[in-house]
Amino acid sequence: MGDSTYKVLECPELGRYGVAARDLKAGELLFEETPFAVGPKLDSPPLCLECCCPVDGGDGGPRCARCGWPLCEDCSAGGGELVYHRGECEVFAANGVRFRPVEDSTAGCVQLDCITPLRVLLAKEADEARWKREIEPMEYHDAERREGANWKVDENNIVAFLRGPCGLGKRFSAELVQRAIGLLDVNAFEGRTGSGYSCRGLYPQLAIMAHNCVPNVVHSIHPSNGFRMVARVAVDVKEGDKLYTTYTYTLTGTVARQSILKASKFFTCRCTRCLDPTELGTHFSTLLCSKCSGGLITSTDPLDENAEWKCGQCGFKTSGAAVQKAVMTIHNEIDELACFEYEAGRLEAYETVYKKYRSVLHPLHFINTSIRHSLIELYGRIPGYEMAELPDVLLERKVELCRSILRVLDVFEPGKSRARAMILYELHAPLIMLAQSAFARGEDQRDGKSLKQQLNEAAQILEECGAILDWEDPATPEGILANVAQQSLAQLRQSIETLD
Questions:
Q1: Structural domain tally of the chain?
Q2: Same domain for 115 and 30?
Q3: What's the pLDDT tens digit per position in 207-237?
Q4: Where is the signal peptide (predicted)?
Q5: From 150, 198, 455, 496, which residue has the greatest number of CB atoms within 10 Å?
Q6: 406 shares a domain with 368
């Protein structure tokens, strides 16, 4: 395993898990691996089976000339050898199994649910040794999955389809097909293609790492290099300490994380963040009490979604169901804003919703955090709010939005994480503009810092951002941003030098 950066141990509670084999420094390489298989996520709408870009699944939609399944025009016309679609293409073509056109190309397409499990099965045939060594020991929760609602659906849509019409009954037993489905459900990680479309891959080494809602391992997936994954430690890790990745989004509240982990990974997370009603002091799920001034309402038992919520100051109580209902209502209101065009009205609508719930949600609540994410990508980018035309008060607003998100990320994704790097990038520009604007007004200082100190602070932020994004595939949006950050940093350093 690399230069043995980690060791694999086993215990009844976690199964196999990884610990640091020696002291590791933040940013140090942990391991690299190629996926056993990669393909569309569950419930994907019609997409190209080579590059995963959305396609029209209707009658006239683009199809593979050989098998008749969805393939975008670029991949069809590429003339090059297909890499990812080749395996299932042979199976579909040999058995005359065609893709049935669908009415709605935005809805999940059940026909595509068989693709990634089939790729896992074909990869097993192609490399039995790797299957035995790396995939065989992986958890797939057979007993729990049999009890679940999806087992029967998969039995029909995937198992029966592959073993019947696709003619694979002799090659793959029903148990093996269900095992492939289970391996993906329990272990697959989400990746993005070079163009930023979602897919999933089976990465056996990463799957060994235990889950935690505050990970200390970060990974980047490189679509232009066969979806190779590079894993690093985000923070310093001492020899013998557990290595943690995360199977959920860190920026969701405890109730949502718990329900995702129970439903798809079949366990209850008992990390310190999940057990703490304040989510490590961030108050990420906390509501403000309407019955007293300054009271905070938190769950009396974060692991139980039906537990009572209570104000720590006046003792006011409400049910878990009432809290979830309130959160859903606000969520639905925000989801509607996603349909707005990218123009001033969109930004103003987000600001309005943000103000509307100011007396209900803790300032760092996950809903406020998600609104902040939407706002920082709008400030400085849409007509009427372009960077050059933002007055100081709105530049300061953008800085405040970034710093509030960082306060949360510094707790949930500490160290050298991609999420932090993306916010650092957003933060550097308004800081430079504010420094220049104060200087242009003839003010020697802003917040007690000289122009040079302010620009140096922005340079430090850019440097940290660029160093983290440098680990990304250069063809992806984050990789391209790494390059932009490095160029901006060089220019900024030149400006700073002229101040001497």
A1: 3
A2: no
A3: 999 999 999 999 999 999 999 999 999 999 9
A4: none
A5: 455
A6: yes
